[in-house]
Amino acid sequence: MAELDKILAKYPDKQRESLIQILQDVQSGFGFISEEAILTIGSHLDLPTSKIYGLATFYEQFRFKPKGKYHLQVCGGTSCHISPLSIQKELEKLINLKDGEITSDGLFSLEVVSCIGACGHSPLLIINNKYHTDITISKLKSIIQQLKKED
After folding, report:
1. Which of 71, 105, 124, 140 has the fewest beta carbons under 10 Å from its own?
2. Residue 132 phi, psi dihedral angles, 5° rounding
3. Does residue 75 lie in a domain region?
4. pLDDT digit string, tens, across residues 30-51
5. In 31-96, which ranges are continuous DSSP H helix?
6. Does 121 have pLDDT greater than 90?
7. CA torsion angle for 7, 11, 14, 15 (degrees, to 10)?
8. Domain end (from 17, 35, 58)
9. Nearest-angstrom CA–CA distance, 57 and 47
10. Do both 75 and 142 map to the same domain?
11. Are residues 53 and 88 in the same domain?
12. Domain of 24?
């Protein structure tokens, strides 16, 4: 946990106002916020872990499980949701994964997110922060096959 200690060292004042920034730094450094990190942050800030977990679960940006090598984000906004092609259902078939899960080999993780704001190009998929717009079934299959090949 030396990396976590480095993050916490950036906040020597130990003020609870630093909690969101600390959580963001931890997630940025580790990809998620572990139970151990919550306990260590609580000790550092002299806060109960229930307060830390409560705050972290309030914001959608925080995750408590690691992401896959390819983190797939599906837009759950109205335009994408009512699209004739359900990206989420197709991905569930292609990689056998549901929202919030990661494949056993750690290759893929799937997350349904709120509206991404690219409604004119729905349905869309984000893979490791790269946007794939106007998705079709064949395009989706091709993308997944390519990712599997690259690994």
Report:
1. 105
2. -120, 115
3. yes
4. 989 999 999 999 999 999 999 9
5. 35-45, 49-58, 78-81, 87-95
6. no
7. -120
8. 58
9. 16
10. yes
11. no
12. 2-58
Kindly state whether residues 75 and 143 are assigned to the same domain.
yes
Provide the residue type at 45 as one letter.
Answer: L
Based on the domain organization, do 75 and 140 belong to the same domain?
Answer: yes
Q: Are residues 53 and 74 in the same domain?
A: no
Query: How would you classify the pairing of strands 70-75 and 108-113?
Result: parallel
User: How many structural domains is the chain composed of?
Assistant: 2
How does pLDDT run across 75-98, given as a tens digit for each residue? 888 777 676 567 888 888 899 999
Beta pairing class for 108-113 and 130-132: unpaired
Tokens 């349904």 appear where? 112
- Partners of residue 132 on adjacent β-strands: 125
Express as a percent the part of the chain with pLDDT over 70: 96
The pair of structure tokens assigned to 92 is 């569930």
- Closest of 140, 145, 57, 43 to residue 100, by C-alpha: 57
Alpha-carbon gap, residue 92 to 111, rounded angstroms? 11
- The answer to whether residue 64 sits within a structural domain is no
Tokens found for residue 136:
């079709």
Asked if residues 60 and 71 have their Cβ atoms less than 8 Å apart, the reply is no
Structure tokens at 131: 């946007």
| Assigned domain for 19 exists | yes
